[in-house]
């Protein structure tokens, strides 16, 4: 599972031109508090800390603690958290950046999840979600098409939604966010991915 997630991390990073996020956080203006929801083994957090200046407080949460790193530096912490359950009340308005990727499709209540996570962001802070959009490239091969069908059927069977809900940006605006943007990146898999 960690190998698969590590491949995903590299594929997404490649698709985003080597970037880990687009929120314009000013990392030079003092220590920031970062939350990575659905962190698994904390790879995104560990990659982020190597790419930004300064020392920051980095928090990873996941439903399954089995993949949490066994040892970390003092500015990292990991906690068990189900995105469909209430967050600790002490975390309200406490993060400069909240990040999550590839989790909302597994939630039967994505609007409630987005709005609950929005409450964790400090005034002036940023929230960034990375979710699949149910799109295929015009030149997608047969395996990519089969994979898309599999995911659609899987999430439909789970009673959830595969692909970014159209109301996603509206939910953030309703939570008081400004400068809400959506960007679509193509992440090719298999033979169509030019980077072996």
From TrEMBL:
Assigned keywords, A-Z: Methyltransferase, Transferase
GO molecular function: methyltransferase activity
Signal sequence interval, chain numbering: none
GO biological process: methylation
Highest taxon, organism lineage: Eukaryota
Family annotation (Pfam families): Methyltransf_23
Keyword check for Transferase: yes
Keyword S-adenosyl-L-methionine appears in the UniProt entry: no
The name this protein goes by in its record: S-adenosyl-L-methionine-dependent methyltransferase
High-level lineage: Eukaryota, Fungi, Dikarya, Ascomycota, Pezizomycotina
